[in-house]
Give the backbone structure.
Amino acid sequence: MTHITPLSDNAWDTCVCPEGFTLCGGSCWRYENSSLISYDAAVSLCADLGAEVALTTSSTENDCAVCLGGSIGIWLGLRGSTTLESFLTSDGSTPTYTNWHPTQTALSGCESYGCDNCVYVDPIDGQWTDYRCDFILLVLCQTRTCCA
């Protein structure tokens, strides 16, 4: 699939997403709805596709994730341990954009299942919530090799 986006009056940028991926918000996305899987399984599945578990870096990308993600929560590419500020991306950096649910002021349920938490996006309001990484959700894979 090729999309041509005007950059100025006389410049054009051609974006080509890998087969099975959809262009949205400057990234290529692939919704894997074949089964509910844990966060670690989602990481492996996306890696096999040459991608990563999706991480939205803007409200536009967050909207893409919600639109492409269907009606069940989807994993986001963040993992943390003790505080919301501890959540890091797959490359170990702090996210530049967040969309935490307003009630998400601290990690939920550490006393129940430990504090190795991952993040999912709610399909209804697009807000983020942490939850245990062994929970099973759908996955949205993303590659940023297309265009900015």
About this structure: The mean pLDDT is 80. The two ends are 17 Å apart (CA to CA). The helical segments are 39-48, 59-68, 110-113. The first strand starts at residue 2 and ends at 6.
